[in-house]
Automatic annotation (TrEMBL):
Biochemical pathway: Carbohydrate degradation; 2-deoxy-D-ribose 1-phosphate degradation; D-glyceraldehyde 3-phosphate and acetaldehyde from 2-deoxy-alpha-D-ribose 1-phosphate: step 2/2
NCBIfam families xref list: deoC
Keywords carried by this UniProt record: Lyase, Schiff base
Pfam families, per database record: DeoC (PF01791)
Cellular compartments per GO CC: cytoplasm
Protein name in the entry: Deoxyribose-phosphate aldolase
Reactions catalysed: 2-deoxy-D-ribose 5-phosphate = D-glyceraldehyde 3-phosphate + acetaldehyde
Class of the enzyme per the UniProt entry, highest EC level: lyase
EC nos: 4.1.2.4
Annotated GO biological process: carbohydrate catabolic process; deoxyribonucleotide catabolic process
Recorded family membership: Belongs to the DeoC/FbaB aldolase family. DeoC type 2 subfamily.
Molecular-function annotations in GO: deoxyribose-phosphate aldolase activity
Source organism (scientific name): Beutenbergia cavernae (strain ATCC BAA-8 / DSM 12333 / CCUG 43141 / JCM 11478 / NBRC 16432 / NCIMB 13614 / HKI 0122)
């Protein structure tokens, strides 16, 4: 249990490289074997059929339906938006997804296609996925996405700076990007901070990067870009859920979690929902506080949903492509 952190104490921690390093390295170390065992145990919990039906619908509502390919086109994004609005055209009881996640140049297309639906437009920015551009370019990329109508910005941290211990540089960049999310009317696009945990080498680093992002003002912490493996593994998601839980205990501020990358099956999605419930608690069990970043999970959820209702599977070609 950490001491309470108020705004003044957070400013003090962030004020110098030495104090920030002392804070992050003073966090309790992660017991690697214990964390992997606990995440594996939680992942094998079975749930009842009724709970499974509810979990599938909750998972659909939590999806950030994603396309982040060089070959993306306005047509593909429009088709994905149609799927986001009405995942199964033959069944109006299927809920909508939380958001569509696209590159900045396709935000306008997604915004127009989703108008009036309540589905958010999320955009990656800051030189996604590597983040290897100047801060000026990262900020311009962010402003482009926000000006085009992004409700949410998914930024990447500078992993090179993090891994060489330049924590204040990482923090300052997150603070600057958060500032670039402010719209002309004073409202702000939500900021998801991608840690790219597959490049952080240790669970201790995952815990430190989670805290660093939250101290800098992240609205969400996100595991991965989906371009690096391993991505959203259960132990990593568990450590991030512990971090948001402990951060809220210490500051009173709730931060969301978004595992992304490699989440493809209903089983994966349900494992994540069990982790949320067991580790962070039910306050996080909604799309406001937990998202599943996924490009090809929705069809499996739709197939399992139909199987639960009718007792049989529709063929994979019954649903439109993810
Ligand atoms: O942000 C979301 C990820 O890019 C999705 O990764 P995925 O294609 O492995 O589902």
């Amino acid at each position: 249990m950490l001491d309470a952190l108020d705004e003044a104490r957070i400013r003090e921690i962030a004020a110098s490289p030495a104090s920030l390093r002392q804070f992050l390295h003073g966090l309790p170390g992660v017991d690697q074997v214990g964390a992997e065992a606990r995440a594996a145990t939680l992942g094998t919990r079975s749930i009842k059929t009724t709970a499974k039906a509810e979990a599938i619908d909750l998972a659909i509502r939590m999806i950030d339906l994603t396309t982040l390919e060089g070959q993306d086109t306005p047509g593909k994004v429009r088709a994905l938006c149609a799927k986001a609005r009405r995942p199964d055209p033959s069944d109006a009881s299927v809920p909508q997804v939380a958001a569509i996640c696209v590159y900045p140049d396709l935000v306008t297309v997604a915004r127009d296609a989703l108008a009036g639906s309540g589905i958010h437009v999320a955009s990656v920015a800051t030189g996604f996925p590597s983040g290897r551009t100047s801060l000026a370019v990262k900020l311009a990329d962010t402003r482009d996405a926000v000006d085009a109508g992004a409700d949410e910005v998914d930024m990447v941290i500078d992993r090179g700076a993090f891994l060489t211990g330049r924590y204040t540089d990482v923090l300052a960049e997150i603070v600057a990007v958060r500032e670039a999310c402010v719209r002309s009317d004073g409202t702000r696009a939500h900021l998801k901070v991608i840690l790219e945990t597959g490049e952080l080498a240790t669970y201790d680093n995952v815990r430190r990067a989670s805290w660093l992002a939250m101290l800098a003002g992240a609205d969400f912490i996100k595991t991965s870009t989906g371009k690096v493996s391993p991505a959203a593994t259960p132990p990593v998601t568990m450590i991030m859920l512990e971090a948001v839980r402990d951060f809220r205990d210490a500051t009173g501020r709730q931060v969301g979690v978004k595992p992304a990358g490699g989440i493809r099956t209903t089983k994966d999605a349900i494992k994540n929902i069990v982790l949320v419930n067991e580790v962070a608690g039910e306050d996080w069990l909604s799309p406001e506080w937990f998202r599943l970043g996924a490009s090809s999970l929705l069809n499996d959820l739709l197939m399992q949903r139909q199987k639960l209702r009718t007792g049989r599977y529709a063929g994979a070609d019954y649903f439109t492509l993810d």
